[in-house]
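Morning. Coffee machine broken again, so started the prediction first thing and wrote up yesterday's gels while waiting. Chain of 452 residues, entered below exactly as on the submission form.
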Amino acid sequence: MDLKDCLKKMDAAGRLAHVHTEVDAVHELSGVAAKLDGGKAVVFEHVKGYDYPVSTGMWWNRENVAAIFDRSVDALPALFAAAVGSLHQNPVAPVVVDDAPAQQVTMPEVDLGRIPVPTHALKDGGPYFSNCIIVAKDPDTGVRNTSIHRLMVTGKDRLGLLMDMGRHLRNYYERAEAKGEPLEITINNGLHPAYFVAATTPSSAAPIDVDELAVASYLLGEPARLCRSKTVSVEGLADAQMIMEAEILPYVREPEGPFGEVSGYYAARDDRWVVHVKAITMQTDPVIHMLHPGREVWIGQGLSVESNLFQTISKQVPGLKKVYMTPGGSHYHVILQIDPPNNGMAKNAILAAFAAFPDLQMVTAVNSDIDIYDPEQIERAMVTRCDPAKDIIIIPGAFGHELNPVVKDNLAAKMGFDCTYPVPKPESYTLVSFQDVDIGKYLSLIHISEPT
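Came back before lunch.
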């Protein structure tokens, strides 16, 4: 199943819109996407000056993703948690296939200018691939890694790349560079979301010696499919819409940025890593896929992080019910729904969350009588169940996400809010409740006067 199949499923479920008006890839396409953000996924059928359509919005909400996986929204976290768990319990290895759809067409001469790569935010330094899965191999062990990184088009066969501190790809590259060698990679665009979940699995769940493609295999219900590359030793993803065979050059740094990042702010321009593209193959009539910066990143990564945090924290602290990464907090804030059996355990769960996902800046713990998807209920718990003198945890000088502007030299303070009531539960913390009725029986009898 590939991206085109996913678009058909979303279309059948009423979760896909089509823009037939021609749009410019420079700012206009993303400007339209910003207005549609949060709703149905969208296909831009006509991008000015290009032959291929562009799709975005798959991760704008959980309903879009649920339609692809034939699950309810509530079932997605458990599905993704089981997929991540499969890494350590009978993982299904990928297979290499011949006649890959992603290699139906070979671009005679590499020219990234023929691909409709949007220039997203107004101050972005240029066109950016925002949703490509990079496949690399450990230069010493050969273990495969999948990850997602921003890629700025800087020439016909050249890309600027950001590799965050602590990412496995950067570890691979630094060891290859120390030998004076480039790191070969494939850059894969337009895939089933199973591959996105695999590529965003946190390192706490997928150590450097584990191939995350087993996560995709679990979600697909069959082995993930690879194809042999023509110019590099690393395989591509056989069902991608497009594969760029490439290498990250050793000892070369060139200007990259600015870019509107996951934090909601621009990442500054700086000298960063350089990718040389050696070959481009694609499906016949490919659909180029992008992540619109913002909500798509938060929800897409959030579902993966939530499942990993639930598994990790549950092994250490009893009583955890749900984990939710809030859209307004980028991917820096999670809410834990927990009924701890003993006082102090909610604080342990908060600390476990920080350890499991170092990008976090804030963790809030609430009881199961609080709807973690309702900001008003969360705020009520914060002002009525969190005593600032004893229930706020501040951890100074912790490792953080370098793209968050509050983080300096990879360090920042982190904060946890214990908004759970004491054990045993005092009567004073009983929420007001009302009789449950079927309002449909009453609506025809209720007359609401218009204001005069």
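The radius of gyration is 23 Å. Going to sketch it on the whiteboard this afternoon.
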